[in-house]
Amino acid sequence: MLQIATGIYFRPGARLHETTHRTTAYSNGFRIDRDPVVLPFATLHFDTGIAPFTPVAIEVVDRLEATDADGQSFGMVATGGEEIIDDAATLLAFTTNTTWSTDRDLVRRLVPPARSDRPVRGPASQLRRTFDPQVLLTDDDLADVAAFGSQLLALSRPGYDKAIRAIRRVVDATLLIADDVTLAYTLYVAALESLAVDTVAPPASWQNYDGRKRALLDPVLAVLDGEQVGAVRAAVLRADALGLAQRFQAFTIDHLEPSYYRAEAVGAQRPISAAALPRALQFAYRVRSAQVHALQQLAPEMWAIGQRSDTLPFEGQTVLSLEGLNRLCRHVIRRYVERARTGVDTSFNYRAALPGQVRMQLAPQYWIWQADGLTIGHGPERLDAFLELLLPVLRGDDGAALMNMTEVLAAIEKLLPGEAVAAKRAPLVALYRLWHNYLVPEAHRPGKDRVLARFGADLDAPSAAAFAVTLLLDDDPPWPTAQLEGFVAARQQQRRSGSAAPLPDRFDAALLLCLARRLWREGRHADAVAAVADAVETLPGDAGLLAFEEHVRADNAAGTVDDSDVSDQGGSGDRDDTDDTDDTDDADDMGPQHHALSAPDLRAFLLAGPDAPDRGEVVEADPASAGEADNEADTEAVAQAEADVGDISEHDVGAPCPPDAGTETDGTAQQVGQAVAEPVAGPAETDDVAADPAAGE
Kindly report the CA angle at 390 between 384 and 394, in degrees rounded to 5? Predict the structure, then answer.
């Protein structure tokens, strides 16, 4: 935000909102006059009192364009100011090597009440100058702040972002020394490592290669001839050069100027030599890795006896201390800023980088109806969104509605003939088919029969889209068990890798239950139970699914269970003990066909909602009464819908229609009245919402 506020990314001549933010920071750096100090990024008003640390008023100007390129109001007059002030204080702390913070108590803990030539405890015993009380900031110090600030603000945006993040980490490290020396040491290393991400390290020689790795490789290489040994060593060294540790070391050494070993080393205690630095950097990186990956603490020998020296002996080698890393980081980051590319980055959208914004995906009803920019590649996301809207409508949830997708359906009709791969067409074909299965004829496209006749076969092969359609309309896919099992395994792997076509989680859980049912019927009981467990882990915490899993386990433990013993909730412990029939006869009648997995009601499970835990339990469906129950539910929903909305119109919430409403139903499908609501916001109001749902904000 510090760079944005300078206005370098604003349009020339644009009208600006300018807001001045002021706050009080506390610093051990002081001035002996009251004249304001004007810097490129802030104005400072020092207190002239005599104390270990004193208050300093920091004043920054927050600038934002008032309108966009079309003259429309941007909608934000100013930021809260905290980010600009925090970055200003961070930059002051970094360039002057003093302490700056808006937290008075923190500064009080870090800065001792009196100066000591050789402090032996506390943060001041680790770093030179940083925590010393009453550090006089000279005119040269402030001129250096102004010069470095100007250099930093002039960088192109990628370079500025990297530099300011590294600067923050260095300052954070100094402030953490009082609480966690290991984390402070790690942050120093991380600051330099973040700048080295794009560095290409030169391959090392085999003699300088890590001795531990060389000891493992040399015996293997001994059986190869000379040419092969050379080729393998060269490949190993090139691969090793790509490692983060090597890039960290190469970048750091490359950004050391002669002044690091000369003028800047004057006054330092035991400054590190050029020859010792590479191994010291390797050690520092190992400390960082041990802390991050194994939570190992920094050895007390490296900090308990504070001497404020750059190096110290540890385990037979010279290593960098906290002070050594502090001085090294400040030097390297300054050199990075001096060398980095400057100029305005025309690709940078400063508005997206403003604080106080959160990017989130819009709910489907805000974009699913938009046809502009729709491509075949958007099919999986559109189908996923359509299913998210469809399920609440089928459940009869209050306020549930499908959006008017006339333009999208027309676009689908144009897109399908242009795609040669059936698997890529399948999601949009599924959406198209479900729309025409559930919506009354008045909402149908005139050419739907021609489109479905030509492309309906795209849903024959196993796919996420084909399963969603089959589950809603036919309950069980027509694929052989081996094919279904292979599809489930492939989809589970795709879900783990993040490459699966999106579907609501309840569909994926239903897919696993569908496989479990098939496996149970074929006698593969252990595999079926495992599939149920996978379903539970696909939809964690679902009450109905958890109850069903317990039911399955109980049935397995008992061997079998009668349908009459299944409770309404499907719980494992709810049995009807009032049956007058003889227990022995019951036991004789029990068989594998009565197990909970013999006929789970997948439709009831699919239509269960988070706000209706008593609906959709995965219990055995009675084939003789399932259709009657579905029709009764549909009729009840129609009656309720008519009572709520009266005549169905273009703007009404969708209501299920009975099978005799003049249209056909397929399997357990129920048709929805002209249940299309107009878009929540028309295109004129949502020009910035892309057709691709992933781009929604």
Answer: 145
Contacts of 503 (CB under 8 A, 6+ apart): 383, 384, 387, 464, 468
**pLDDT at position 593 over 90:** no
**How distant, in Å, are the alpha carbons of 383, 402, 608 from that of 396?**
20, 12, 11
d(Cα 541, Cα 539) in Å, to the nearest integer? Answer: 7
The 8-class DSSP code of residue 137 comes to: -
Phi, psi of 297 (to 5 degrees): -90, 155
Q: Is the dihedral angle over the CA atoms 117, 121, 126, 129 positive or is it negative?
A: negative
What is the rounded CA–CA span in Å between residue 692 and residue 373?
A: 8
Q: Given this model, what pLDDT does residue 462 score? A: 96
Quote the tokens at residue 272: 């590190």
CA distance 429 to 457: 9
**pTM attached to this predicted model:** 0.73
Cα–Cα nearest to 468, from 371, 380, 392: 380
Which pLDDT value is given to residue 73? Answer: 83
Copy the structure tokens of residue 488. Answer: 């489930």
Per-residue pLDDT reduced to its tens digit, 281-300: 999 999 999 998 899 999 98
The residue whose two tokens read 């549930």 is: 400
What are the tens digits of pLDDT across the range 423-457?
999 999 999 999 999 988 889 999 999 999 999 99
In this structure, are residues 54 and 46 in contact, taking their beta carbons and an 8 Å threshold?
yes
Band of pLDDT at residue 585, cut at 50, 70 and 90: very low
Tokens of 193: 């490592």
CA distance 95 to 638: 73
Residue 564 burial class via C-beta count within 10 angstroms: exposed 0-12, middle 13-18, buried 19 and up: exposed
pLDDT at 561: 39
Do residues 145 and 39 touch, judged by C-beta distance below 8 A? yes
Distances (CA, A) of 380 to 292, 483, 494, 503: 38, 22, 14, 8
Count of other CB atoms within 10 angstroms of residue 210:
15
> How open is the CA angle 687-363-607, to the nearest 5 degrees?
145
Give the Cα separation of 357 and 363 in Å (integer): 18
pLDDT exceeds cutoff 50 at 583: no
Residue 469 is encoded by which pair of tokens?
Answer: 């359609």
Q: Is 72 exposed, middle or buried (0-12, 13-18, 19+ CB in 10 A)?
A: exposed
Asked if 156 and 341 touch (Cβ cutoff 8 Å), the reply is yes
Greatest C-alpha distance within the chain: 102
Residues 620, 354: Cα–Cα separation, whole Å: 55
Mean pLDDT along residues 563-578: 35
Q: Among positive and negative, which fits the CA dihedral 540, 541, 544, 550?
A: positive
Pairing of strands 402-403, 135-136: unpaired
Tell me the β-bridge partners of 37. 44
3-state SS, residue 371: coil
Residue 542 tokens, joined: 């679902």
- Cβ neighbours around 427 below 10 Å, total: 30
Side chain identity at 457, as an amino acid letter? A
* Separation of CA 345 from chain center: 26
The token pair that represents 608 in the structure block = 């269960």
Pairwise pLDDT comparison (220 vs 417), residue with the higher score: 417
pLDDT at 600: 80
pLDDT tens track for 646-665: 332 333 333 333 333 333 33
Cα–Cα dist 116/52, whole Å: 12
